[in-house]
Amino acid sequence: MEQRSQVESALGGAAYGMLFVLGVVMGVVGGFTHSAWPGLPVVSAVLWLVLIFGVSLGAGKLMGGRAAAAVTSAGWVLVSSAFSLRLGAGDLVIAGDASGHVYLYGGMVAAVAAFLMLPSSGGSWLLRGYPEEGSAPPGKVQQGR
Predict the structure, then answer these.
(1) DSSP secondary structure letters along 111-137
(2) Please, what is the average pLDDT of the chain?
(3) CA–CA separation, 12 vs 9, rounded Å?
(4) Confidence of residue 116 (pLDDT cuts 50, 70, 90)
(5) CA dist., res. 55 & res. 21, Å (int)
(6) Distance CA 94, CA 103 (A)
(7) Is 5 exposed, middle or buried (0-12, 13-18, 19+ CB in 10 A)?
(8) Is the pLDDT of residue 89 over 90?
(9) What is residue 49's DSSP assignment?
(10) Element (H, E) at 51
(11) What's the confidence (pLDDT) of residue 115?
């Protein structure tokens, strides 16, 4: 397995942290603007779906794995879930109307679709198979006879 330096690990952690912050910002802005067009509120919610899908997919492709898409989507889901809760005074950011349902549930579908469209970085555990009989287990060097 390839070892990474401390600087590379720190940069990777910072990149994932910024992707989470990007998801949080998208959730805050999207929560308040998902029904911004008075005549066509569902259209703006659909535009947010395209944006959520595109940013999650792009983050995953740029970082080279599904984790980046999951982190970005997690930031968005965290804020959007909180915005869909009714507060004690009856305040609600994401309302229970058509645009709110399209934005909230469609955004979750878009985030999952972006995650599933990305290849996994480690390969499938189902396709690895078992070592042949007599061969050394993974990570062990077989000694000569």
Answers:
(1) HHHHHHHSPPSS--TTSS--PPTTSPP
(2) 84
(3) 5
(4) very high
(5) 13
(6) 8
(7) exposed
(8) no
(9) H
(10) helix 41-63
(11) 94
Could you read off the pLDDT of 26-85 as tens digits, one per residue?
Answer: 999 999 998 887 778 789 999 999 999 999 999 999 998 899 999 999 999 999 999 998
State if pTM tops 0.90: no
CB neighbour list of residue 3: distance below 8 Å, 6 or more residues apart:
none
Residue 66 to residue 69: CA distance in whole angstroms = 5
77 CA to centre of own chain:
9
**In the chain, pLDDT over 70 holds for what percent of residues?**
81
* d(C-alpha 85, C-alpha 129), whole Å: 46
Structural element, H or E, at residue 6: helix 6-33
Minimal CA–CA distance to 92: which of 102, 103, 81? 81
The CA–CA distances, whole Å, from 100 to 25, 41, 45, 124 equal 18, 9, 8, 37
The tens digit of pLDDT for each residue in 25-34 reads 999 999 999 8
Give the other-Cβ count within 10 Å of 94's Cβ: 25
The CA-based angle 13-17-22, given to 5 degrees, is 145
